[in-house]
Amino acid sequence: MRETFPVTINGATRQIARGTTVAVAMLLAEQPCRLSVSGEPRGALCGMGICFECRAVVNGIPHRRTCQILCEQDMTVETNR
Amino acid sequence: MKPFDILIVGAGIVGSAVARECALIGWRVGVIEGGTPAGGATAAGMGHVVVMDDSPAQLALTAFSRSLWQRDSGKLPKSVEYETCGTIWVAADDEEMVEVHARREVYEEAGVETRVLTAAALANKEPNLRRGLAGGLLVPGDGVVYPPAAAAFYLAEARRLGAEFFQARAMSASQGQVLLSDGVSLVADRIVLAVGTECDLLPSLPIQKRKGHLVITDRYPGFLHHQLVELGYLKSAHKIADDSVAFNIQPRQTGQLLLGSSRQYGNEGPEAEPEMLRRMIDRAKQYMPGLENLSVLRVWTGFRAATFDKLPLIGPAAGLSEDRSLWLAAGFEGLGITNAPGAARLLVDAMLGRKSAIDAEPYLPARLMEPARLAHA
User: Fold this and answer.
1) What pLDDT digit, counting tens, does each position of A17-70 carry?
2) Together in a domain, B369 and B223
3) CA quadruple B88, B94, B99, B104: dihedral positive or negative?
4) pTM (2 decimals)?
5) Are B213 and B332 in a shared domain?
6) A37 touches chain B (CB under 8 A)
7) According to the model, what pLDDT value does residue B15 have?
8) Which residues of chain A lie closer than 8 angstroms to B223, CB-CB?
9) Interface of A with B in 60-79 (CB under 8 A)
């Protein structure tokens, strides 16, 4: 069993396995990474840091590419609005 | 082919505004554009609709034009992103606060509403400005538009009213005849050159290219609420010899921040220059340190169409050309977006012999004929 730790996504805390990217954690939590200009939910597309669709607010910093960031203990992640 | 009442060369914001104005009075209008409509000087503009007081004539034209924007605001489609966010002229120190009070009086005399902001009021309105600034002058009626969409709106209005659009390059324009690159020849009573910085059709046009850089960030809603311009802007904008930068930042409806500004003469290369961008961003960070942490999406450059006396050329080309069919609407430098509707009105007034809302004489091209230019040099 892999080690897990708590990560808070849009206010709800869940256990995430070490080695999980933030983009995947958001997918598991069924939360959009960001909202488009017209308010549509968006999530990871390319998964390799090119398309910028997976940007979210990570530890208070907006527009982070979540597919390029690994989850860390007690991280907070929010949908980028 | 039946002659046109007017042919307009250039479908930037100025040419398109003129086209709409002429279509509104029932004229048969042709608009000629060789490139992307609004892809030249218009695309280089921030879209700041601003009353500027650097000369009485500029103040009169910008105030008149802004009133036309305000009157049109209900008709503008959403794509134009018209927003009355107001301008704050930011004063860094007490010396600049003296300037704030002086400008307030000038604006007041012209009937333009302003409010002096103390240091605390400024910090309250724009919390991301650094502490220790002296205050500012709020001009609440100023606004912001998205220039290419505004130009497209004017052009669409003109076409809805019957104007014809020709996607071709004008190879020559004289004596009421315009020859297009696709071989078509058009005839009209009047030709208007609304050509931005492209002077090939009339090489005597006293217009110089003045390069600028722009930077746009990702979306940060709530970071900025007004267009902010450092009060030193006029000083730097008026320097002719040196490259200069000034803090000038604009909130877009999307939450993006549009950051200017740089001014360069004598550099006609379109490439973005890291050194100018660095100077521009450093200047901005002196006012808004929080910009450090924001992401930039794109940078680009463009050219303003500058004249020797900082005023546009609106009216008959007399003095610059013997050709009595030629009219000009050009040379707006950094104020083409603001002044497009006012210029269109003045031009059509002059063509009809109608009295204008403001005195059109300061903008007549004849003032910049050769002897006058030498006197300016």
Assistant:
1) 999 999 999 999 999 999 999 999 999 999 999 999 999 999 999 999 999 999
2) no
3) positive
4) 0.91
5) no
6) yes
7) 98
8) none
9) 61-63
A37 with B254: Cβ contact below 8 A: yes
Model pLDDT, residue A39: 93
Closest CA to B190 of B330, B19, B356: B19
Q: How many CB atoms lie within 10 A of CB B329?
A: 30
Q: Which two tokens stand for residue B96?
A: 């600049």
Question: Which residue, B121, B42, B139, B130, is CA-closest to B85?
Answer: B139
Among chain A residues, the shortest Cα distance to B220 is held by A62
Range of the domain at B152: 4-45+147-206+309-376
Contact flag A37-B219 (C-beta cutoff 8 Å): yes
Chain B contact present for A49, CB below 8 A: no
**Nearest chain B CA: its distance from A56 CA (Å):** 12
CA distance B138 to B116: 6
Report how far apart the first and last C-alpha atoms of chain A are (Å, whole number): 35
Task: Give the range among A76-80, B40-44, B123-127, B369-373 with minimum mean pLDDT.
Answer: B369-373
Q: Examine residue B158 and state whether it is found in any structural domain, yes or no.
A: yes
Residues contacting residue B188 through CB under 8 Å, at least 6 positions apart: B3, B4, B5, B6, B7, B30, B176, B177, B178, B325
- Give the number of other CB atoms < 10 A from CB of residue B341: 26
Q: Is A63–B221 a contact, with Cβ atoms under 8 angstroms apart?
A: no
pLDDT at residue B232 in the model: 81
Give the model confidence (pLDDT) of B264-315 as tens digits: 988 899 999 999 999 999 999 999 999 999 999 999 999 999 999 999 999 9
Query: Which chain A residues touch B293 with a CB distance below 8 Å?
Result: 61
pLDDT digits (tens, 9 = 90+) for B230-244: 998 766 655 556 789
Q: What are the tokens at B104?
A: 């307030």
Determine if residue B53 is left, alpha or beta; phi over 0 gives left, psi from -120 to 50 gives alpha, anything else beta.
alpha
In a domain, B69, yes or no: no
